[in-house]
Design a protein that fits this description.
The complex is a heterohexamer of chains A (375), B (278), C (193), D (197), E (441) and F (233). Chain B has 278 residues and is an alpha+beta fold. Chain B folds into two domains: 64 residues, 3-methyladenine DNA Glycosylase II, Chain A, domain 3; 181 residues, no CATH class. In chain B, 36% of the residues lie in helices and 12% in strands. The longest helix of chain B is centred in the N-terminal third of the chain and has 24 residues. Chain B is elongated and about 95 Å long. Chain C is mainly alpha-helical. Chain C has one domain. The longest helix of chain C has 30 residues. Chain F is mainly alpha-helical and 233 residues long. Chain F has one domain. In chain F, helix 3 packs across helix 4 and helix 4 crosses helix 5. Classes of the chains: A mainly alpha (375), B alpha+beta (278), C mainly alpha (193), D alpha+beta (197), E alpha/beta (441), F mainly alpha (233). At the A-E interface, strand 1 and helix 2 of A face strand 15, strand 16, helix 10, helix 12 and helix 13 of E. The structure holds flavin mononucleotide (3 copies), riboflavin, iron/sulfur cluster (4 copies) and FE2/S2 (inorganic) cluster. Riboflavin (RBF) binds next to helix 2, helix 4, helix 6 and helix 13 of chain A.
């Protein structure tokens, strides 16, 4: 019936009531499914019971709870970064988290979707991006990174759960490519609360540099250096310095069953194994594998970023492949690529492969007939 | 200059002639009709015919494995031309039909029996006790039909009720197949009077469930021409082969009958007049 | 590293045809809706690009250069490639219906996409030998295939997403290609070519 | 068959016309193209030579260097005497590929200018070798007046581009090589031959 | 045997303490009973009574509609008040007879007569089980005589009596085992005789130590009988998982337990079958656990088939506070009811009433791909991908991802942090896939 | 009036990039600056107008079966002319557009217009169409190029606009930026189209799929199939 009739019909039914919302004039038939509403507070008349499909119980874990666990696991490393980089680190963390949440809210408003800051995923993305930035990052750099992370990499795809690429890493890589000077050349070493900081290169770029100038590796890597690296006494992003605290966070997440061991272990293991092999054959050009494991962003990448649910495989076998793939690409880039660090790119590349991995590692249904035996 | 001309011309000649020969040598039998038909088809390779492309459909039509009007995009004109190629008659051209949702019970007038908590989709909702409406015949209002209509012809009105816009409706009947309640019917586009109810419940029950339900009072049956409206198990059903005067709508005590389009204006006044008289 | 290896790594990863050089965007966007079709297309591209590399190289070095007609490069290349593809299609259709079924529908699609012409022109520009040109053609096609298959996987997933309405389809596809290209930036500097 | 011949004929005709047109256009543009190519090089030559009054493009000699390669050297003259020379060299240790640049040297072996011809360095980083700020440092420097032809990082005098030490280093080292080359072949360049007509 | 684990599963809070120590109490006859005609899985039974008919307790009121069907008997003596559509507790509205008891509770002739089960032939036993309307009481209500007729080529070698009762809240099977161990044992040996197996395992979860003890005592001296204590994990009682736990045999996807030579029967079914054969009593009553925080006095009630939930609730002290969800069966697999007009059927193992604050709302947020559902799915499916496919109406894809093998255990939805209505999706998809399959033949 | 309509349709309703989604390779590749966009636009417009003219005037003489190779040869000729002329007279531009000049041959817009329009319309209409399409293409290229140049280089037509303090977002002039900018612009254009359609009460026309139907190159080149031959069943 024509619009006019429709209105007439409605009026019939409304009996003078004005509709609360206008008939949705959607441009196409593709409309996001509205959510079934919650039960009204108190029903005087009419239905009494809620009816839904089974099951009628739930273990109570929520998305925001999971995100909070990750934030908690990240907290020690974040606090430690403030300890070593001073208030600059705090500034970076605050700006990043805030801008991530603001971008999230704005884009959800624009798309006329419920603003879901409560699920904390935007805050987590902001925090993780902050952990991936140097403490010297100017405010605008942080905001630009978060724009790409939240708006381009996440909300354009429909928000939480749909983004194929890790938002925080997209943000980081955009910045890395666009502002290489800020992202790779302005390091401050660790010191207590940012006092007497000096500018140096990160261990990985020192390694690359020595390879480029001298033709072989010329970095001291003894017990003292290992200790320094472990406690974060070196140049680097906020979050990549304190290897021990990151590992503790990872253990916490595994204990809380938020993440599985598969991706981090395979990731770190693959890096260690591959660099180890090269080191065995040619120690002059390839540094000790332990150096590779404890420098750079490997720990934060493997524990907090490669494990991002949305962008990593869901199957167990897929997670193993994903982790190993990340490790191999990381080493490839670290050893031969232009960039001193390959963790971010490796994870993004494996993100791209995730749909294929999931597809080809589909679990075999319980009691699946063995096709070979059947044939 | 001359070398250029000769070289390039030779190349072209070689290519063209070579291919021409190859086309002979490697010729694969072709159905000439298929080629002709392919010319007629829109060539959009849109897949609306559910085949990999226009060429494939052409082949099937030529082999008699697909209908001559299988291409929805080409429509009747294509079908006619194809019919000519195939040496067949294309009947088509019947009265245009549009979809109609035979329910008027939005939430303002129809009662609910429980709080449904589940997938926002009619086909899923019927899995739990056939939906939350007290009237088990009525529209669930979760918009599955609107979702399948490729032409945006179905609006969901506030309060959960699907309404077809006959101007946009192309008569593809996708929605009819999609509705789990089976309350969408194809009706001739020219007909204006409709009884928007599908409830076979007895009058009292129907009235309890919905304020605009057909209660089977027979008033419209009596007012309409003989046989134009019939009673089917407490539900008045329109036989669309009849032309029914708009005044009949005013007879309905439940306001279940509607008159659409141009006739709507015409119906309003007699209705008011009738009300005044009574 | 031997030059051939460098050429391959460069063509597949560092200077990926689609993601870094923007060649062959049409099939990249058009035939990537399903992983299976993307794989089929990649096979066809591998075939055509390798063949085109060889043939155009021969034409250039044995016809155009000797007669001083290098300015006819574009015209002659496109004629030759197109005829060749069609010839192959004819032959395949007759001699190997199975292979034709697998690649056939894709062959005409790539007759003249810019990746094929592009690889031929690049072969000349970079002054490759015949062997290098062949390897470069094949490598570029493999790079195309890798990008294509990854992208089709992503697209199958994006199809299930709740993308805002105006962005559905090509728009979000392009953004995704951008992010994929971003990830491929990681390979910069792997080899110098 | 007749049909085929007709088709082939049409096509051949069209191609022939096309070839004719192109041959004509090619004839007409051959010279401007050659000129443009030369001009491209010459503008670099001119900008790096010390003051001159001749036409350097016409005053080119080819010198042979080790390894069998040859280098084209353009000479600038004032009042008939050679005042300096410009030649292109290639730095093969650039960041993403070879960097080709032109340097100009005067009689004393002092660098007069540097012009980048071709490079593949990263935009925004290595690509800044084209900037005046960076190139300018090299004017007035010679092997004699500059102790170490290195970037400051390596103890030298040249300030590298931030974040692009590798590119800067490549330019610096190759320039030094070029100057050495110049020193070795100075005699050849300055003494041999008059204006070539 | 027994300590093995199947893949996946969850540990919901069991809340069995509400009722597991209260003995079964018989409920007095209510004012009227609503007896559904369709009480088994398979072909619905055909009514043979009409309004106004007088019936006796145990008299057939609906006959089997085919082989995969069973008769339905009058739960007491009285008059058929009317025949009408009622909300059947399994989630559809269905025809039922309203039986107004006359209070005499008179048996139909021949029923409730004790006789020896010795020397009855296999055929005769099966016939009696069918005639007395015995269906599976573990929830599926599949006609038992059908399960007792495995295909000749399948070699059966094990009978499992399923006393797992892995569903939270429910304690009906538990109490039955504690109070009627011998009956269950005798029913089991009947089944064993019928299908010709020697080994019988009574499988009980470890959280019912008293039941294990009683059962162990009951089977002492019975050749081939054993009692198996199993880990407490849901869905331990699902037959494929149960068989795997006990024997490490995998029932093929899409197959039946008989494909691996096993028959699984619920404890209640065993008892009912025993009584049918030994006392000629049809299945007209069963134990229903009425529990949940929305019930004043949780109880295990022996109720007649046809007892309206309204009356059950009244018998258990009425609703408590803000009762918002009423479930026929356990909270993991049970069916939520919209009205207390529904009535007990042969498959009603429990009536769980939850309060408002315990009701989890499904919200259909996007899947965050946390993979928790893959970890718990006992059928090793990919519920995440499945639900996404189904959300976008891609039923062929769902079929390819084996949605038809889903046992609807609800583990995936139980753990999903996005509160996605997974099982609802799967039920939808199964319906659609069946439609598709029918179309393509 | 008709002429104007033919001309202006290329600007919005049939804008080759944003509405027809054609010719993406050159669009992505050359729009690193507004100037490059302008040059590429001009070059393509020239080829488009010339080829439309020639093809429209030959349309009666070229047998249907060899039309595609004939068109392509004509197009390739004009492309080569542009190539040579640019190389001679606009050498710097030629250098920065590089590979993509010869590739104009396979730009779907050109052959697409030849097939879909020029071969069916009289010369003057075809010329106007060529100008219109070329204009739409050029404007779109300039817009994309300008956006990328302003953000990615801080300049527009090589004129610095933010001063020295501005640090350009290099991403924009690198390959990922090309994809992202074009994708986002396309989405925004769709949004505008939806809004416009809503206002005028029509269905929005959005090309969601970039499939090969939008490009006519894939039709058979040499059509030598013997249609007269009887069918073998
Ligand atoms: C993406 C990327 C591109 C780079 N491009 C260049 C370049 O073009 N030229 C260069 O010298 N260094 C380039 N670098 C930096 C080098 O890797 C190296 O870090 C730098 O030259 C060290 O110099 P610094 O001491 O000035 O930081 C690049 C780094 C990255 C990550
Ligand atoms: C998820 C799931 C859980 C089940 N849990 C039980 C249970 O705890 N106890 C039980 O007897 N049957 C349970 N069943 C039913 C059994 O799989 C099986 O059907 C039953 O034990 C067969 O016995 P019956 O025919 O006598 O009912 C469950 C089924 C499913 C799918
Ligand atoms: C599945 C099933 C469960 C039963 N559970 C009980 C029960 O828990 N308590 C009980 O007294 N009778 C139960 N009965 C019935 C008894 O076996 C018996 O018929 C009943 O106690 C009446 O026996 P009596 O009156 O001869 O003592 C059940 C019957 C069936 C079929
Ligand atoms: C274990 C875990 C790791 C996460 N890692 C990331 C991350 O690396 N980057 C990010 O943007 N969000 C991360 N998130 C948050 C969230 O998944 C992310 O915002 C989604 O990708 C947005 O759809 C993580 C969440 C979890 C639970
Ligand atoms: S008409 Fe049918 S499909 Fe449409 S909303 Fe109503 S019940 Fe759903
Ligand atoms: S689905 Fe088809 S029949 Fe139904 S309203 Fe839409 S266009 Fe009309
Ligand atoms: S309901 Fe189905 S999909 Fe979900 S866990 Fe159970 S078997 Fe797996
Ligand atoms: S548990 Fe829920 S959110 Fe997690 S993967 Fe499964 S469906 Fe997705
Ligand atoms: S323009 Fe179509 S493939 Fe490049």
């Amino acid at each position: 019936m024509a619009r006019k009739d429709l209105e007439v019909l409605l009026e019939d039914n409304m009996e003078g009531k004005t509709p609360e919302e206008k008939p949705a004039a959607e441009p196409t038939h593709e409309k996001p499914a509205p959510r079934p509403g919650p039960r009204p507070k108190k029903a005087e008349v009419g239905p009494r019971f809620v009816v839904s499909s089974s099951p009628h119980m739930h273990d109570g874990r929520t998305v925001s709870q999971i995100m909070r666990f990750v934030i908690i696991a990240l907290a020690p490393a974040a606090l430690y970064s403030i300890y070593i980089f001073g208030l600059d680190a705090l500034r970076v963390i605050l700006i990043s988290t805030a801008s991530a949440m603001i971008f999230e809210a704005i884009s959800q408003k624009i798309m006329k979707r419920p603003v879901a800051l409560r699920d904390s995923s935007a805050a987590l993305t902001g925090l993780l991006l902050a952990m991936n930035l140097p403490s010297t990052s100017p405010w605008w750099l942080i905001v630009v990174g978060n724009f790409f992370a939240i708006v381009i990499a996440k909300q354009l795809y429909g928000g939480l759960g749909y983004n194929p690429f890790n938002p925080a890493l997209v943000g980081r890589v955009v910045l890395l490519i666009s502002f290489p000077v800020h992202m790779t050349a302005r390091w401050v070493t660790a010191s207590r609360f940012g006092t007497d900081a000096v500018t140096t290169a990160t261990p990985l770029s020192q390694m690359k540099e020595s390879l480029a100038t001298l033709g072989h590796i010329d970095i001291a890597f003894g017990r003292e250096e290992i200790f320094d690296l472990l406690i974060g006494n070196r140049a680097g992003c906020l979050g990549e310095t304190s290897v021990i605290l990151l590992a503790l966070g990872g253990l916490f997440l595994i204990w809380k069953r938020v993440i599985s061991w598969r991706i981090p272990v395979m990731f770190i293991g693959a890096v260690w194994a591959m660099t180890g092999i090269f080191h065995l054959f040619d120690p002059a050009h390839y540094i000790d594998p332990s150096f590779h494991v404890i420098t750079g962003g490997l720990f934060i990448g493997a524990i907090f970023m490669a494990t991002d649910y949305v962008t990593s495989p869901v199957t167990k076998k897929g997670m193993l492949i994903f982790g190993a793939g990340c490790g191999i690409i990381t080493v490839l880039i670290r050893l031969w690529g232009a960039y001193p660090e390959g963790v971010s790119f490796a994870i993004l590349l494996m993100n791209a492969a995730t749909p294929l991995i999931d597809r080809y590692t589909k679990p075999r249904v319980f009691g699946a007939v063995d096709t070979k035996a059947a044939a | 200059m001359l070398t250029a001309v000769i070289a390039l011309a030779a190349l072209a000649l070689l290519a063209a002639f070579g291919l021409a020969i190859a086309a002979r040598v490697f010729a694969v039998p072709h159905n000439p009709k298929a080629d002709e038909i392919e010319e007629v088809l829109p060539g959009a390779n849109c897949g609306a015919c559910a085949l990999p492309g226009c060429a494939e459909l052409a082949r099937r039509i030529a082999e008699g494995k697909a209908d001559i009007d299988a291409c929805p995009v080409g429509g009747e004109s294509a079908a006619h031309t194809i019919a000519a190629i195939m040496g067949m008659e294309f009947e088509g051209g019947a009265e245009r039909e549009v979809a109609l949702v035979l329910c008027k019970g939005s939430d303002q007038v129809a009662a609910k029996r429980f709080f449904y908590n589940g997938i926002y989709d009619c086909n899923s909702a019927v899995l739990v006790f056939g939906g939350d409406k007290a009237c088990t015949y009525g529209c669930l209002g979760l918009g599955t039909c609107a979702g399948v209509c490729l032409f945006g012809a179905i609006d969901m009105v506030p309060g959960g009720l699907a309404v077809v816009d006959p101007e946009k409706c192309t008569g593809c009947a996708q929605c009819v197949a999609a509705c789990p309640k089976g309350i969408i019917k194809m009706v001739p586009a020219s007909r204006k009077l409709h009884i928007l109810c599908s409830s076979h419940d007895k009058g009292g029950v129907a009235r309890k469930h919905c304020k605009v339900a057909c209660i089977g009072c027979m008033k419209c049956v009596k007012a309409a021409p003989e046989g134009a409206i019939t009673m089917d198990n407490f539900l008045a059903v329109v036989d669309y082969s009849f032309e029914i005067p708009a005044e009949v709508a005013a007879e309905c005590p439940m306001n279940t009958i509607i008159v659409t389009g141009d006739a709507a204006g015409a119906c309003e006044e007699p209705a008011a007049a009738a009300g005044g008289d009574a | 590293m031997p030059k051939l290896v460098i050429i391959i790594i460069s063509a597949v990863l560092v200077n990926n045809f689609v993601l870094m050089r923007f060649l062959g965007i049409c099939p990249f966007l058009g035939v990537s809706k399903r992983v299976s079709t993307a794989a089929g297309m990649s096979g066809a591209v591998l075939f055509v690009m390798t063949m085109a590399s060889v043939v155009t190289w021969l034409i250039y070095h044995y016809v155009l250069v000797p007669f001083g007609l290098t300015y006819l490069q574009t015209v002659s290349f496109i004629l030759v490639i197109a005829s060749l593809v069609q010839l192959v299609e004819l032959v395949l259709q007759k001699l190997s219906p199975a292979l034709y079924k697998a690649l056939g529908i894709f062959l005409p699609l790539i007759t003249t996409n810019c990746a094929v012409l592009g690889v031929s022109v690049l072969n000349i520009q970079k002054e490759f030998t015949l062997l290098e040109a062949t390897i470069f053609g094949a490598g570029a096609a493999v790079g195309f295939g890798v990008a294509m298959v990854l992208f089709s996987g992503l697209r199958e997933r994006i199809d299930l997403c709740d993308t805002p309405i105006p962005f559905r389809g090509t728009a979000i596809g392009l953004v995704t290609a951008g992010l994929l290209s971003l990830a491929f930036m990681g390979f910069t500097g792997l080899v110098k070519l | 068959m007749k049909e085929i011949i007709r088709l082939c004929f049409v096509l051949t005709l069209i191609t022939a016309v096309s070839a004719g047109v192109l041959a004509y256009v090619n004839q007409q543009t051959a010279e401007p193209i050659a000129r443009a190519l030369l001009e491209e090089k010459m503008s670099a030559v001119r900008s790096v030579l010390p003051p001159y009054d001749n036409e350097p493009d016409k005053d080119m000699i080819t010198i042979m260097i080790e390894g069998g390669d040859s280098i084209e050297v353009y000479r600038g003259r004032k009042d008939g005497t050679v005042t300096g020379a410009a030649f292109a060299i290639v730095a093969s240790d650039g960041y993403s590929g070879d960097i080709e640049f032109m340097i100009g040297v005067d009689g004393e072996g002092v660098m007069q200018g540097l012009m980048v011809l071709k490079h593949l360095e990263t935009p925004g980083l290595g690509a800044k070798i084209e900037s005046e700020d960076f190139r300018g440092q090299y004017s007035g420097k010679s092997l004699e007046n500059t102790e170490l032809w290195e970037v400051t990082r390596d103890g030298g005098t040249f300030i590298p581009i931030t974040g692009a030490t590798i590119s800067s280093r490549a330019i610096t080292k190759t320039s030094a090589k070029g100057l050495k080359l110049f020193r070795e072949h100075k005699a050849e360049i300055f003494e041999e031959g008059e204006v070539q007509e | 045997m027994g300590s093995g684990r199947f893949f996946g599963g969850v540990h919901p809070s069991y809340n069995k303490g509400l009722a597991d120590s209260s003995a079964i109490v018989e409920m007095p006859l209510p004012e009227r009973l609503v007896v559904f005609f369709a009480q088994n899985l398979g072909v619905p039974s055909q009514p043979v009574v009409k309004k106004g008919d007088e019936v006796k307790k145990g008299q057939v009121i609906a006959e089997a509609g085919g082989f995969v069907s069973t008769p339905v008997h009058a739960p007491t003596s009285g008059t058929i008040g009317s025949i009408d559509i009622y909300p059947s507790p399994v989630g559809v509205d269905a025809p039922a007879a309203v039986l107004v008891p006359d209070g005499k509770d008179e048996w139909f002739e021949g029923c409730n007569v004790e006789r020896s089960s010795e020397g009855l032939g296999v055929k005769k036993i099966k016939e009696m089980i069918h005639d007395k309307g015995i269906v599976g009481m573990g929830g599926a209500t599949f006609p038992t005589h059908v399960k007792l007729s495995p295909l000749a080529e399948k070699k059966m070698d094990l009978l499992v009596i399923n006393g797992a009762e892995c569903e939270p809240y429910l304690t009906a099977d538990h109490r039955l085992m504690v109070e009627h161990a011998e009956g269950i044992r005798d029913g089991a040996s009947l089944f064993a005789t019928v299908i010709g197996v020697r080994n019988v395992v009574v499988a009980i979860e470890k959280n019912k130590p008293d039941a294990i003890e009683v059962m162990c005592k009951a089977v002492v001296g019975c050749q081939g009988f054993s009692v198996e204590a199993m880990d407490v994990i849901y869905p331990q009682g699902a037959e494929k998982q149960l068989i795997y736990t006990l024997t490490k045999r995998k029932v093929p996807a899409g197959g039946l337990p008989m494909d691996v030579g096993v028959l699984v029967q619920n404890v209640g079914t065993a008892l009912a079958a025993y009584e049918a054969v030994r006392y000629n009593r049809p299945l007209i009553q069963r134990v229903v656990t009425v529990t949940g925080s929305g019930i004043r006095e949780p109880k295990n009630v022996l109720a007649r088939v046809g007892t309206r939930f309204e009356d059950l609730v009244k018998f258990c002290g009425g609703l408590e506070g803000d009762a918002a969800k009423c479930i026929n069966g356990g909270p993991m697999m049970g069916v939520a009811q919209y009205s207390l007009d529904a009535a007990v059927t042969k498959g009603t193992s429990g009536l769980v009433i939850l309060r408002q604050e315990e009701v989890t709302q499904f919200v259909s947020d996007a899947c965050i791909r946390c993979a928790r559902c893959l970890e718990v799915c006992p059928m090793k499916l990919n519920p995440s991908a499945l639900s996404i496919f189904i959300e976008k109406m891609r039923f062929e894809d769902a079929n390819e991802y084996n949605v038809m093998d889903c046992i609807e255990c609800g583990c995936c939805a139980y753990v999903c942090p996005s509160r996605r209505p997974m099982v609802h999706h799967f039920r939808r998809a199964k319906a659609e896939v069946r439609k598709l399959q029918r179309k393509t033949g | 009036m008709k002429a104007w309509d033919e001309f202006i349709k290329g600007f919005w309703s049939e804008n080759p990039i944003f509405r027809l989604v054609l010719g993406l390779c050159p669009t992505l590749a050359v729009t690193t600056s507004a100037e490059n966009g302008l040059a590429m636009g001009f070059a393509s417009t020239f080829v488009l107008v010339c080829s439309n003219t020639v093809i429209s005037s030959m349309r009666r003489f070229v047998p249907k079966k060899v039309r595609i190779p004939a068109y392509i040869v004509a197009i390739a000729t004009f492309v080569t002319i542009v190539d040579l002329v640019m190389n001679g007279y606009f050498h710097a531009l030629h250098k920065s557009l590089g590979l993509f000049i010869p590739l104009i041959v396979v730009n779907c817009i050109i052959l697409g217009r030849a097939e879909a329009f020029a071969s069916k319309n009289p010369v003057w209409v075809a010329i106007i169409d060529g100008f219109g399409m070329g204009f739409g293409f050029t404007v779109s290229l300039i817009v994309i190029g300008a956006i990328r140049e302003v953000i990615g280089n801080g300049t527009i037509f090589n004129v610095s606009i933010f001063g020295d303090g501005y640090l350009p977002l290099l991403l924009m002039i690198l390959p990922p930026g090309a994809f992202i900018v074009l994708g986002v612009l396309l989405g925004l254009m769709n949004k505008v189209e939806i809004a416009m359609a809503e206002r005028s009460g029509r269905q929005p026309i959005i090309r969601r799929e970039h499939d090969c139907a939008s490009c006519t190159i894939h039709t058979k080149w040499f059509d030598f199939s013997e249609k007269e031959k009887p069918t073998v069943e």
